[in-house]
């Protein structure tokens, strides 16, 4: 930490603020899948019933939400490292397939080094998670 005019300033690398966070999130999601599968087995619930469940009617099924979480983590990580984003088919329909997807994504994210992110961070990057507003046609 260093002292600035307005007080203390703490610096943190872009790598430290992103890659480990994505890894923790995907590992936690893997734990959720493990618990959901055990619950389905214990309660004799067909796995597709949980995997296609929605907490609210306008939500996407759980399987798709896992795929979106993976897409965000791998996409953001690849952009930060300046490497090509891996393309996955998003055809997972079982707990095992979702766990394999998470493992594959964690392996990819784990291959990204702090130096890759540091070198890319020097370049200006524009990226948004929010779609641009649509313009009205006149």
Automatic annotation (TrEMBL):
Q: Which Pfam families match?
A: DUF1993 (PF09351)
SUPFAM superfamilies (alphabetical)? DinB/YfiT-like putative metalloenzymes
Q: Which domain of life is it from?
A: Bacteria
State the InterPro entries in the record: DinB/YfiT-like, DUF1993
Q: List the protein's name.
A: DUF1993 domain-containing protein
Q: Which organism is it from?
A: Pseudomonas amygdali pv. eriobotryae
């Amino acid at each position: 930490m260093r002292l600035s005019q307005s007080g203390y300033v703490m610096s943190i690398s872009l790598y430290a603020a992103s890659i480990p966070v994505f890894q923790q999130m995907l590992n936690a999601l893997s734990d959720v899948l493990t618990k959901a599968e055990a619950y389905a087995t214990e309660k004799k619930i067909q796995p597709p019933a949980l995997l296609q469940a929605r907490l609210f009617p306008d939500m996407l099924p759980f399987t798709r939400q896992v795929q979106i979480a993976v897409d965000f983590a791998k996409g953001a990580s690849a952009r930060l490292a300046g490497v090509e984003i891996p393309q996955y088919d998003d055809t997972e329909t079982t707990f095992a397939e979702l766990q394999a997807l998470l493992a594959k994504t964690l392996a990819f994210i784990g291959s990204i080094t702090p130096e890759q992110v540091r070198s890319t961070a020097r370049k200006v990057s524009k990226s948004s998670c929010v779609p641009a507003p649509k313009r009205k046609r006149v």
